[in-house]
Design brief:
single chain, about 110 residues, alpha+beta, Mannitol-specific EII, Chain A, 4 strands, about 30% strand
C-alpha cells in the first residue's frame, strides 16, 4: 500500500462512514488501487473513535483490479457475520486466534447442510 491508497481510504470515509454497525468497520479505497488483494484485521478492545461511534473490529480491504472478481466473495463473508450477529462476540475476543475461531464457528453454522 502506498500514500495514494491511504489518501483514497480517507476520501472514501469522508463520503460515508464504513462502520457497518455493532462496532465493525470495513474501510476501503475509492478504487481498485492495491497491487495485491489483502484484508488487514484490527482488533481494538477499547474501540477506536469512528465518526460519532467506536469501531472494535476493523477490516481494511485492499483490492487489486486483477483479483477483483475473486475477492468480491469476501463481502458475502462480512454479510454472513453481520446477519449471524457474530459481531457482538467478535468484538469481545481477547486474542486474534480466538477471533478467528469464533468467526469460523459462526460461518460454519451459517452454511446449510
Amino acid at each position: 500500500m502506498d500514500e495514494d491508497f491511504c489518501l483514497s481510504v480517507n476520501q472514501r470515509e469522508q463520503i460515508v462512514s464504513t462502520l457497518l454497525g455493532e462496532g465493525i468497520a470495513l474501510p476501503h479505497s475509492l478504487g481498485l488501487q492495491a497491487r495485491q488483494s489483502v484484508v488487514y484485521t484490527v482488533l481494538a478492545p477499547d474501540g477506536i473513535p469512528w465518526g460519532e461511534e467506536r469501531a472494535y473490529v476493523i477490516f481494511l480491504l485492499a483490492i487489486s483490479k486483477a483479483e477483483y472478481q475473486a475477492t468480491m466473495g469476501i463481502y458475502d463473508i462480512f454479510v454472513e457475520l453481520m446477519q449471524s450477529r457474530a459481531a457482538l462476540q467478535l468484538k469481545n475476543c481477547p486474542t486474534f486466534p480466538v477471533f478467528i475461531d469464533t468467526a469460523l464457528e459462526f460461518l460454519q453454522q451459517s452454511v446449510p447442510g
